[in-house]
Every structure is written in structure tokens, then in C-alpha cells.
Task: structure prediction
Amino acid sequence: MKNYEVFVYSLKKWGGNCLAYACLQPGLSSFGTLNRGVLFFKRPFNRNRDHKIFNLKYRKYIGTILFQWAKRIYSPLVVFGDGLLNLDLAEDTIDKILQTKCRISFCHVGDNISRILSKRGFYITPMGYETVIDLESFNPTWRTHRWFMMALKKASKELVVTEKESIELLKEDIQRVDKKWSVSRKRSFKNQAFLTRPITFKEEMDVRCFFAYQNDIMVGFRFFDPMYKDGE
Result:
């Protein structure tokens, strides 16, 4: 079975966390099996180029043990969220990846994974909590959600929001809106990736895409990634 098919199988079976779909983004390496699920990780620098320079420059001057220690420092792995793990076998999968000779950090994990890591000596730093909203029973009012109602009232007068399945033909408009938004940030990045999934400009399974237009000009967009439980 090809890797992508394994990932899709794991996504539909164990993709119940908010970053599950983002595991399919390009540029991530994987660790796992079909039955255990998959962890995804990334190195914070170009490993092939930097390792070649590091090896040639320093191996001549330091001993083997010191070299291995230094290599672990400069070759960390950052594991992405909870991945697509079978939680019943998660401890064994995590133990196996910890056996690799690299420094490893876990970013944006949930309660189940953080408890496993805590038992293995990791320090856990809380980043906040995730809010789950039942859209069928969600009933905002001016008293309970004043800012939301103000934004909704203004948007309903000025904007037309539409859902579209294909975004390939909208690439130029999306890039224009994205560039305008990026320069307004305190620190602008050319490309967002890892915790923020990059746009692929192709049809993606179960992803919903909404666009806001003002006077027939696109002024905003929002993509919604699916979450799965037992194949649904």
C-alpha cells in the first residue's frame, strides 16, 4: 500500500484532532504503520545541505562521541501534533520513535499524548485549549456574542459569501488576498506551513472552501478541514 493510501486510511480512522488533516501537507516525514497509525515530523533546517557542511567541517576536529552528541543537538525532530495515531497503541509507537538518535520535540499535542510524554520525562507546556462548538445548537445573541453579531451585521450588508469546490481557477485572487493579509502582520512570512497548513490549489477530500466578495472582488477566504471518527 502506498504511503498516501496509508495516510488517508489513518486519517479517516484516527483523524479526530484539529490538526489531523494538516498531516497531509507536503514537506513532512512520517513514522508509523497501517495498524499503529502515523506520526509526522519535520527538521527545522535543510538536513541534507547542513549535515554535509557540518560533517565536513567538524568531524576532523572532534572525537566520535562528541560528534554524535553535537549531531543530536543540530539534528532535532519536531513532531507535528497528535499525528494520526491509534491511541490504543500510541505508547509503543512513541517509544519506538524515541529510540532514534535525535533530539525530539512534540508540538501542539493533546491530553492523551502529553500524558504519555510526561511519563517519559518530557516537560509539558500548556498552550491553551480548543473550543468545540455544536453548530446545530449554537445560538449567538447580542448579549452573549456582541462582537460576533456586530461583525455578522456588517458583513451581511457589504459581503457576499459563496462556497466553491474548485479553487484552481481562483489562484491569482487567493494569492492577492493572502499577500495583502501577510504584509499587515507584525512579522510577515512568504509561506505558511507546519501548524498552518499551506494552500495546495487542488481538489482535496472533504475540504470546504468559502470566499467573501465585495463588489464582485474577492476580499477574503476561509478553508475548513474535516475531522474524522471511525471513518465518518
About this structure: The first strand starts at residue 29 and ends at 33. The chain has seven helices and eight strands.
